[in-house]
Structure formats: structure tokens, C-alpha cells
């Protein structure tokens, strides 16, 4: 204790006051970081700090604002944010100093400050419950960290209190947590901003497509059955992307190379210039279990993949298209399926609307008759014309089949669970994309197979709804379905796993009739 004397005051005591102020400032920083992270997690358009800065700008008298702007120019917003942050840290330091001797005052200060932030948040056009939650979380963090770090100095090493060393460790942990939360919040918030900006661009795109209704007669419109045409928001989603790539159409291009006569790179506008074709297609995932819902149907609009393959000129000997997405996912598709005249598309729209970001915006592939993992590359950026013998794509490396033709399948959607005795519709869907469904049969309690009625389809690339009226008697029953496709193949009852190339077996559901 070098600077301590009885009458001039104690260096240690000054040091202690400084430490408390410092911990108070740290508490304020932690509070700011916590509220920023909460704001990002809640996807708020404006964090409490920003709301406060905007309020400060609004409340600054016009003359002052003008002189400030004359000095800092267009940097008045960053200046307001920095002032708010500095003010908060300063307030934290003051509260830290007061925390031990003037606790009620310090607490009141924390409450009033939090209240002012909440008021600022609520006065803003984007004011929301989320903003209030983030503000309150900041206030709670402020008080919690003050409570944790600002303490009486231990009298001696042996005292029952927490040692200085422990307090320093806790302060270190709070500082690290603050840095992590702050950085994480900023990264997340930046991503949310990019996503919102992209959604604006997407909404403003003028594509020569329009929304249409399901073709007449395709949807039986039975209560409780999924619609024939899947709304975009309900379309199943499968990919390896933790967050989808955010690609502006202006920044998109597709590079085509490999076993081709002429390499080609095309832009989004180049693609649109080749003219769009519309095609009703049912897309399904190889991981769809028997009876599962990883399958959906919509009207895709895009450029036939064959158009581009013809332009580049496929060299003899090639049998595969290796496509790569913006996030590095790869997919190998048989060239035969892309050139045999089916509606294999480089799609830009689903159901008349630009592709949703999660479904591959701005451009994805879709190929009728093949599972998604070997055909439906989203956010596609690169094509290499090649040979299956020369590469393994993402899922093939992980044990899935190199080629994934869709297996003929059927699913029971109705009745849902328990039904009352009487005439009850048994209904569902069946699919064998690019082959077509010829017949669907149903049996109850392992009785005779009975043929169901099929609804209309626009082509053989979509699923078909089917229905059979059932005279349901009280008791427990098992309903089973099987489909026969237009090649004459009837679904095997033998159950096989989804790995390596799609599930087989009949969908069977238990219902209880009362
Ligand atoms: N870039 C990319 N594209 C991808 C995938 C992926 O993981 N990454 N998954 C594929 C799989 S396995 C399926 S089933 C379909 C699903 O498309 P959807 O999410 O639009 O329904 O996308 C395919 N395209
Ligand atoms: Mo899939």
C-alpha cells in the first residue's frame, strides 16, 4: 500500500472507486451487447440503442442539429449512436461508483435509464414488444453485472468474501461474453439487413410469370387433405445450408464448362432472354419415408436445361451434369434426363412468383422424375459436363445412390385419425413422376384390393389425388394403399429404408371408428 496515509486519503480507496467505475462501465457495455444480441435474435428492424439514437436526433433542437450537421455532415447518425453508447457507458460508470454506498440511488438510475430506453423504443414506428424485451434484458444485465462485480474489498485474504482474484476472473468472463454477444449480434443483424434488402429486390423483380390456380379437377378439395398445388410457404424444404445464400439477380451467373464444345457464362438477364417455360412438377426428397411429407407440387417457370446444353454442345462420352451451388453443394444428374425432352428447367419462379430465397433464389434446377438430391440444385452457380465415372457428388460421397430416379409411391392422407361410423372418404396422393400413375388400390384390414378414383392431372410429372368411399364400421381398422404406374409396375409391399435410393413399401394407417 504505497500511497496510503491517514490524512491525505488512501490510494487504495481511490483505486477501489476507480475499479467500481470501471466495472460499472463494463456492466453498461454488457447491457448494450445483450440488448443488441437480443434485437438481432428477434430480428428487430431497430435495436434499442438505435431507437435511442434516433430519438436523440429527433429531440435535438433544429438549430443545434443544423450546426452539428454542418460540422459532421451526413455522419450525424453515427455520431448520435456513438454519443448514446458513450452516454450509456458513462452512466454505467456513475452507477458503479454509487453501487455500494448509494444503492437505492444507483438502482433508481438503472430503472429510469431502462425506462427511457423503453419509451424511446415505443415512440418509434418499428416499436414492438421485441424492442421492449431487448431493452429490459439490457437493464437486467446492467444490474446483474453491477451486482456480480461491484463488491466490498475483502478485509484480508482469509475473509469470507469473494477474493479479488475471483472478481477479476468474473470481470474477464463478463468482458469476453460482452465481446462475443456484441460481435454475434452485429453479424446476425448485418445478415438480417442483407436479407431484408434482398427481399425488396426479389419483390420488385418483374418476371413474365403470373400466379395460377391448380388445373381444373386436380384437387378433390376434401377437408383435411393437403392441396394438390402446394402454396410456396408450405413447400417442403431440404438443404444443407444453415442460412440460405443471399444472391442478388444482378450478381448471379452460371458458368458452363467441362466436356463442351464452347464454354459459356450466362447472367440472369441472359437466362430470361431465352424465354421461360411453365411446367407443373412434383418435387420429392429421397429421404421421404413411406407416408411422409417431403413432397410438394407447384408450377415452375424456367429455361429448359437442354436449351443451354445445346448451346454449349455436349461432347461425346459425357453422361453427367455436375452442378454446384453458391454454397458449394454438388449434384450429379444423368444427361439423358436433361435432354430427353422432359421439362428439366433452370427455374426462376414457383407458382408465378420469383423463387423464395429458401428455395434457391435467384435460380435453381428442377427435373421431373428424379429425387431432389440428384437434380434440384438450388442457388446453382456452375455446371460441369462430365462423366459419372469421374466424380462423386455431395450425397453420393455419403453413401446415397449416384442416380436417383423417383420410386413409384402412394400415401394415405384421409381419414385423419378417429372417425364416426358411416360413409368416410379414404383419400391420398400417388406419384411416379415422368411415368405417370395408372391405378391406385386400397384395402382395409388386409381384405380385397379395391380400385380408387383418380383425380385429374396436367401431365405425368405430378402427383395425383385419389379417393375411395368407405363404409366404416365401428372398431379398429388398418388401411393400406398401393399404386401401379403406367409402366405396369405395382408398388412392392416390401419395406426398404430411404438409404441409399428411396423408401419402398405400402403406406398403412390405423384408424379407429366409433
Ligand atoms: N444448394 C443446394 N441445393 C439443393 C440441396 C442442398 O442441400 N443444397 N438439397 C437438394 C435436396 S436433397 C432436395 S430434396 C431439394 C429440395 O428442394 P426444396 O427445398 O426447394 O424443396 O433441393 C435439392 N437442392
Ligand atoms: Mo432430398
TrEMBL record:
Domain Oxidoreductase molybdopterin-binding, residue spans? 244-395
The keyword RNA-binding is assigned to this record: no
Q: Which GO terms describe its biological process?
A: sulfur compound metabolic process
**Membrane-spanning ranges:** 21-42, 79-99, 105-123, 130-150, 170-190
PANTHER family attached to this UniProt entry: SULFITE OXIDASE, MITOCHONDRIAL, SULFITE REDUCTASE
Report whether Transport shows up as a keyword of the record. no
Question: What Pfam families is this protein classified in?
Answer: Oxidored_molyb
GO function terms (MF aspect): heme binding; molybdopterin cofactor binding; sulfite oxidase activity
Identify the keywords attached in UniProt to this record, alphabetized.
Answer: Membrane, Transmembrane, Transmembrane helix
Q: What is this protein called?
A: Oxidoreductase
